[in-house]
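ingest -> validate -> predict -> emit
validate: passed (alphabet ok, no gaps, 287 aa)
predict: started
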Amino acid sequence: MSAPDPSLLSINTATVRAQWPLPDTIAALARHGIRGISPWRDQVAAAGLDDTARRIRDAGLTVTGLCRGGMFPAPDREGRRAAHDDNRRAVDEALTLGAQCLVLVVGGLPKDRGGQIVSRDLAGAREMVRDGLGSLYEYAHGAGMPLAIEPLHPMYAADRACVNTMAQANALCDELAPDGTDGLGLAVDVYHVWWDPLLRAEIIRAGERNRLFAYHICDWLVPTRDLLNDRGMMGDGVIDLPLIRGWMDAAGYRGMHEVEIFSAQDWWKRDGDEVLLTCRRRHAEAS
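emit:
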């Protein structure tokens, strides 16, 4: 398979968040000729929303997504209302930044205000996700901001996301946006879905309904020393990235390839410029 177009490379700012604050990351991407960026809301808040939007525009960067909205389940109505209000703010922030989508990590089992899980009702949590997503979709659709559901690996079902497969995410889109073209879709993160035996079929299913909004790449290391913060650089693990890219291409995806690496024991310890240079090389060689 031919190498990907280098102009399609985007960097999720988590990849170098240990090295630089957001303004420095924006400058570094421009310096390295990388044309895409996906910032996190806490970084945007620290740097200032309007200032960040200006810096991104001045650097000529495409905002491939804003991370993140979601976290819908809560043990009481007050908590669910707080999540709803925060998600509306996330939509507004994504609009200010000119993001192509707001990425949603939907949340797991309900937690109290101290972050402790207070329920074992997984089916109930998924109902809260459906209801919260439906309400947010009404607001986001009216504002013109696409929402991208990101299925997370089942290891995160309890604490981060109870939507764990592409099939679940596609089913939510079928229920809430049945015409398939109304701004509700998927963020395909290979770290979370590479193992799924239905992955190709569900990518095709999403592509047929114009629901492939984002594509996140990294690699799965063996052994993985930390399930959250030990993602691999492309080519260092076991994911067949060119194969999955081929499926995405065949399904009609024409967006950017967003490198998102959490790596407390390796890449976060390296020089930021080295990390970006490696991202560019491995995107060409191993993606």
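The chain has a mean pLDDT of 97.
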